[in-house]
Specification:
The chain is of the alpha+beta class. The chain is built from 3 helices and 4 strands, in the order E-H-E-E-H-H-E. The chain has a single domain, classed as Alpha-Beta Plaits (2-Layer Sandwich).
């Protein structure tokens, strides 16, 4: 198992819209595809107030790459993205980190 930690920096004033897109559209598509969503977070204290952070679990890198490609090409996602960005882009920057759990990690 590998884990992907993704950090989205929202465009100014658009974090609420980004959260709505995830809540109302993105996670429904991922659930239908059987994705392992570990969690979603925003900073309460200590970090930027314009970021959405989430973690996904994958059996391996190949599955992750294949699934993200299929998701990105899906008409359902394309429609949700287009409709949510009618007033401009929601995301200024995306960071993706792939993590290997240690042999003593509770999540493996």
């Amino acid at each position: 198992m590998i884990f992907e930690l993704r950090t989205y920096t929202a465009m100014p004033g658009r974090l609420g819209d980004l959260n709505r897109r995830f809540r109302d559209h993105t996670i429904k598509i991922w659930e239908a595809r059987g994705w392992n969503m570990v969690g979603f977070w925003t900073y309460k204290h200590g970090g930027p107030s314009d970021q959405l952070i989430y973690m996904l679990g994958w059996p391996d890198q190949e599955t992750r790459d294949r699934e993200f490609a299929a998701f990105g090409a899906s008409p359902e996602w394309q429609k949700a993205r287009e409709e949510s960005e009618v007033n401009g882009p929601l995301v200024a920057h995306i960071r993706s980190d792939i993590l290997n759990p240690t042999d003593y990690s509770l999540l493996r």
